């Protein structure tokens, strides 16, 4: 994967993928689906763009029907649906706010109503705001970040457990910042640490039901969150601090979700896959 140059491109959070320069890479032409998820139904929060979009398209290429949640980015969501359907898979769009517990329950119920089952839950929706002084983080921002990034995991998992069974999986999107911290993303990093605790705490009781739960902890990945929440300098140098000296693409992250969703990872639960450009973490 060659290095890409990122331009200053201010956007309003949570960002629009179709307006990014360059566009993120969603799936590599070389990625060959082998039916790993044939007959499965997946629900992906934050599935309209970025990592969520890439996961949806990879799942579709592996044979899964996909429901994707998003806040209000209709154009991006419809583009993702088109990509999923071009893979020969069904796609259900579910707009709404995962900060609300009632909506998270609705997400699960509508997915099951449409497809008749739920086998893979991907908790991926997230928000962040770049501030390097904890005193500048408002009470409203703190609560919103926690509601989006970790409360929604609780809400959707609680609802999904009425439908998940033997062999089904839950995948949570964590972050490198859960392990090394980030002085400019204090509240965001705290929520990602909470995700790690949730995954580890649920692994044992869910194993008794034959359900696995794992996390993916990306490093710097080129998604709409970056130009919409970071300053010009942070955008133009994004990813340069990694050993690989570049940011990752969603296409490089999504195959890990395929692995965790499939029987290939049947002996793995409570764990985290680190995809961060070569940063070694003591975790």
Automatic annotation (TrEMBL):
InterPro entries: KR_dom, NAD(P)-bd_dom_sf, Sc_DH/Rdtase_CS, SDR_fam. Keywords: Oxidoreductase. GO terms for molecular function: oxidoreductase activity, acting on CH-OH group of donors. SMART domains: PKS_KR. Residues 1-22 are annotated as: Disordered. Belongs to the short-chain dehydrogenases/reductases (SDR) family. This is NAD(P)-dependent oxidoreductase. It comes from Halotalea alkalilenta. It holds the Pfam family adh_short_C2. The keyword Oxidoreductase applies.
